[in-house]
Write a structure and sequence with these properties.
This protein has 162 residues and is α+β, with helices and mostly antiparallel strands. Helix content is 36%, strand content 28%. 17% of the residues are buried.
Length: 162
Amino acid sequence: MYEFIWVIVIMMILYAISYKYLSAMNESVERSDFVRTLNRVQAQLTLNVAEWYAIGKQVSRTEVEQRNPLDLIELVPENYQGELSSDQLSKCGQARWCYLVDTKRLVYRVKHTGELNNTYNQKDILVYKLQLSLIGGKSERGLPAALTLVPEYRFTWQNVGF
């Protein structure tokens, strides 16, 4: 009889340990997917800027920075949920991207927040904005030099800072 109780206790301990490590692995997988998607979107934005520069296209800083960055690229992430307003943010699923049309921000809603340190008031939301650099500095219009997705609030996620 005591052997059975010991087997149950040992199984519970092993289950608790494995659950802890599997949860950490789920968060690591989500963070890796987030970084991969962010890098893929950034690479496509950079290609757009290179094309605009090559053809000599003058762009407006305000017009470009107010656009949905995913409208500027060809390969939209599979976990992109679409355009929403800020009051509909709760409809954006976890581990999904959405664009807030009223604030003009691209948002990622985090599912596993155990290792996420976020300065935004909503801890499971990562907010990005477009930032356009023009050749010639701070003018409103000109040849594009870079188009970057910039985090609006500082955060670290499993020792990776943004």
